[in-house]
Every structure is written in structure tokens, then in C-alpha cells.
């Protein structure tokens, strides 16, 4: 029989402190019984015989005199089998739909199993999202971790739902999806459920939801449960899994709250000094293993406080991940959807996943030229604000025309418009024809002749 503890030293918010505890492991599961209810917790600190437990639940009614604590000899584990597809769970992987419990002979630690770096396979295969600005300019590669940097009130949820509806591999292999929500409102959760159902992919989606009125501490476990399910589907069932996690900012805020309760020394803007390593422990679970057909591709969504890309959360996320897709408020205000600003956006792995054998041989040339030309558009727009558009040269006016067409025709598309790779590439070349051929510096002679109608003797 496991030893039970009833003498509690301190309760503060979601933290319980006990002393005179022996033979306890860090991260071990804790069962807390009080007022006839059972809660799950986790050991987060051990100091000699004093143990600090983080409870995943609302502890405001807890009393020092009415608690029974029991320690397990293992970390938090969840049962998994293929029946999780199409199901909805709360933040600690308990079913909240009407599908009943998940029964499995195997339980999996939410902390995951570290991947041997030597066993990792380098990501190369292109994922078509049907969104031109992503497919052509910030290409998503299977096994990549590519975050969406957004802001409050912008359509990041719509973009994520569109990616889930439309994502496919060139090999026509099917995706399954894992969706994790932390601190979102009920109407946002319903939006995703409705979007997946209407798209006919609900039976391919596993959902883990921690809503805004759910216990904050659950948010620290939610993404771990989701990624554990993704690893199971990818590396044991050989499926290609696309993981959407929203909102990483809510996760980091919960981490900061726990750090404050534990009286840890704060770092930038009050976040704990281990924010980088904690985020990395999530992001690095994406990838592929050599010899295993499955893969985990990760798209974390974070809302930048005050649209500040230098804030610690987007700043550290950018260091860990392989690029970012940046949602721009000024484009959103122009009515452009998706309002993706391509200039600060990038995909560090796209160079090895585009071109002949992956997308199309002209992809690299088109991408480079669109970046260069649109960058010059921004410079000319800044000048026109000073001197006025009427005083610009004819060439500058051509660039402004190009910029308008690029935003309204290439970047902008309907949320249910699924553009093929070929359509997106051809559209990019057609818009480049607005510029004089002398301004096309990043395109080979062959591609100028083929796609821009240039004539050479």
C-alpha cells in the first residue's frame, strides 16, 4: 500500500508544500484527495525532505486539515491507442466528449522520450497548405517547427484552421492532426471544432482543450499531452502528424505565475530564466526519425503582447524554431487575408525542400525575386509619404502598382480558397510581369524567357 500524507505544511494558489517526505522522484505524479474530489498533481521541487507539488486544478477551497496526498513512483502517463482520433480531451487528457474513457495496455509519459540527435532525419518534403504566401515564400516542410507570430484580434485561428483543412503532401499521403488549446475562450474552441467538422477532417483530429476558465496550471500539461499523442501516432503508427498549439503566450504566462508562486528569481519581464529551455523541450519534440515513416510537424501560435516581436516569448521562440510566419496588423486593417507580412517571415528549411524534385524548378528564382521586389516597394512607399506619389518616377510608380497587385492578388485569398502549388507559382510570375525586365535581378535567363517572355538574341 502506498504511503499517504495528511500533514500539509503550506498551500499557496496551486502549490502544496509537504515536509518529512521520503523516496520521492522529481516529476512524479501526485494524487490529491480533498472534499470528496480527486485531483492530479506533479512534484516540481525537492529540497531535502520538503516536497513542492503543483496541482492541476482549482485549489481555492483547499484546507490544510482535509487533504490526503499520495505519491506515485512515475511521471504523469496517459493511455493511447488509435481511437483517440476524432476525440476531445481536457488539458490533462481526460475525455470531455461523450466517447468514454480510452483503454489501452500501454501508458505513455507526457514528458516524452528524448530523441537521439543522430537518429533524426533532416526534413525535406514540402507540405502544400494551399496558401500562396506560405507555399511560395515561407514554405512548410514535413517535420519542421514553424510558428505563427500574431497579435490580439488577428485571424491566426482562421489561418490555422485553413492549414488543417488544406494541408497535404505531394505524395498524396494523408495527415492526421493534433490540436492543443491553452487559455482560449469557449467560442474559439467551438470555432475550431466547427471548422474541422465542416472540412470533413474531424475524425482525423485529436483535440486537447484548456479553456480560459479552466485551471491555469493545466496549461503546463496540455501541450505535453498533445505532443505525446502526436509522437505515438507518428513513431508507433507511422502517420504524418501536424500539430497546432495555441496560444503559447498563455502557456508562458502560466509558467511565469508558477515561477512567481515558487519565489524563483525572475528574468526578462518577470518570466523565469528557464523559459528558453522549457519552450525548447516542447518545440524539439517535432521532427522525423530515420527509418520511421511517420513525422511530427509543429505549428505553434503565439500572440505577441503589444505586437512586439522582441518580446521574450516570440524572441526565444524564433531562436528555437526554424523560422516564423508573421501576421501583420496593417495588412489586416487593409482587409487582406491572410495578412502575412513576408518580409519578417521566413522558413529556414525551405531552401532544401523546394526546387526540382520537391516543388518546381523555378520556385527558388520566383521566391527570391518576389522578396527583392516587395522589399523595394516598402522603400518607395516610405519615400512617397515624404515627397508625394505624383513626384515619383515612372519606375517607382510601377513598383507601387506591383506592390498593390502583390498584396491584393497574391497575398490575399479567400479562407476557403485552396490554391495549388502550380497556380501560386504562375500567379507570382504574372504579377512580376508588371515590372520592367531590367528590374528582374534574381531570375535566371532561362526562367526570364520561359515565364516573363524576355527575348534574348
UniProtKB/TrEMBL annotation:
One of its GO terms (molecular function) is hydrolase activity. Residues 352-451 form the ATP synthase A/B type C-terminal domain. One of its GO terms (biological process) is proton motive force-driven plasma membrane ATP synthesis. InterPro entries: ATP-synt_VA_C, ATPase_a/bsu_AS, ATPase_F1/V1/A1_a/bsu_nucl-bd, P-loop_NTPase, V-ATPase_su_B/beta. Gene3D superfamilies: 3.40.50.12240. SUPFAM superfamilies: C-terminal domain of alpha and beta subunits of F1 ATP synthase (SSF47917), P-loop containing nucleoside triphosphate hydrolases (SSF52540). Residues 130-347 form the ATPase F1/V1/A1 complex alpha/beta subunit nucleotide-binding domain. The keyword Flavoprotein does not apply. It comes from the Bacteria. Pfam families: ATP-synt_ab, ATP-synt_VA_C. Keywords: ATP synthesis, Hydrogen ion transport, Hydrolase, Ion transport, Transport. Produces ATP from ADP in the presence of a proton gradient across the membrane. The V-type beta chain is a regulatory subunit. Belongs to the ATPase alpha/beta chains family. HAMAP family: ATP_synth_B_arch. This is V-type ATP synthase beta chain.
